[in-house]
Amino acid sequence: EIMLNQTGFYPYAPKFAVVAGPVTAASFYLLNEAKDTVFTGKLGAEQHSSNSNLVTRLIDFSAFSDTGTYRLAVPGAVTSYPFYIRPAVMNAVAIAVLKGYYYQRASMPLLPAYAGKWARAAGHPDADVTIHPNAADQFRPAGTKIPTPLGWYDAGDYNKYIVNSGITMGTLLGAYEDFPEYFNHLSTNIPESGNQVPDLLNEAIYNLRWMLTMQDANDGGVYHKCTNAGFDNMVMPDKARATRYVVQKSTAAALDFAAVTAQASRVLKPFLPALADSCLKASRKAWKWAEGHPGVPYNQDSINKLYSPAISTGTYGDNRFHDEWVWAAAELYSTTGDAAFLRAFEAYLPNTVQLPNWGNVAMLGYYTMLRKDRSSSLSTRLQEDVLKLATHYLDFYSAFHTVMGQSVRDFTWGSNDVAAHQGMLLLFAYRLTRDKRYVNRALENLDYILGRNATGYSFVTGYGSKTPMFPHHRPSAADGIAEPVPGLVAGGPNPGMQDKCKYEFTDPERAYTDQTASYASNEIAINWNAPLVYLANGIEALQQEAGY
Ligand code: 9MR
Questions:
Q1: pTM of the entire predicted model
Q2: What EC identifiers does the entry list (predicted)?
Q3: ipTM of the prediction
């Protein structure tokens, strides 16, 4: 089988595919639509994958740059899916992964003009959400109702979680901060399009307005999530009518909220100054609450022993807060210039910084600090840390010619999030250094997500020839439409296989199954789409700048 980015390639960027499985041929052939060979080259040496028992050989057709539609052929292998070579080749998928958030919107109907055949009724007005007994306090006793409308559904489920919204928003707003000119001109055809606010920000504001409702103005604390007691059946949003609760306030929620609202305040200031001011006030209040409650985890199991009804939805139960302090301090410092936040940032700095995920957000603070200033001794240190990780990636090529898979631990729940965050980090490293190698390696991880991987899937719904048809996503499963909601990235290979589904392959890089029930490998989630929004649009933006 030939694995490749099923969307295609830029004319003047590197172009790689791999053939997986035993082949004895020495050469590959690039065929045009008339099946004429337009280019040929030697296959690379056999490479044994460290993440499965696959053997691959590299196909390098970088030297070919004519635009058109092509397939790759290797004697003894199945001819590849068709793909493009053309400028702006990632444009459609880049827009789609941002548009994916529109389809996740709670509390409003999706109209055919924007949603096409995936139009649907509004779900979850969340107009009178109950304070769960575990969240009751002197201001809001158990049973009090508050409105928490709007926002995006987290994933395949219909709950709304502050921690996961946090990293998602930070990543999307960061994409805007790094590529403002590009996003100022990008339309995703959403109801707000054309309102003088860039669509990326329009989309983020829809979730921001929900986040703001999750803060208790009485004390500044932030509820950990807005949720049902248990997960819904696989029904459309308007048919999911279980009682909604907000649950206990937590330190992680307060700090992630403080970070997002401080960043949003900065980014939205030129567009919506009043909203920007409210965001900064809310941010300072949440920070203050966290200072008074520096170690409150959301520990669902312990809470369930004390209060009913028991809550069994996602936990995002982070209980190490250094990284949240780092991120929130960075955003508040960047927005206000207040030295107290700089001191807090320095006080919580880790020894080494890791690739971000919902449980570790320190890197988002590094990105923000480096956007603000590149000249201080502190920023020299931050830059060294970021480049250390990025440079470590440069030395490694998986059997699929990617950074993804350098460690077998890359294959975790939501492994495509890892691939996308690696790509985002590499693009950020390019911004710091202007060293083209980083862009090329970032592009390779995009190639991975769009098909050059051991499963042969292009993991974004609707984009590619072999794409997930049965994601663990309630609207996609319940809407009666064959094609799933488009523009959503599946979790990807996860040898943990916690869903107990039957997997055809169980080795780390192939433990993926396209079944609705596979929430551990085939769910979608807002935090996984976000770094892909950064990566795909960042690559497009850089290609446009370079004039291709
Ligand atoms: O992405 C989360 C992953 O890191 C965890 O291992 C997993 C189990 O706790 O939960 C994932 O997040 C899910 C969340 O809890 C509920 N909504 C769907 C999310 C994606 O599967």
A1: 0.98
A2: 3.2.1.4
A3: 0.99
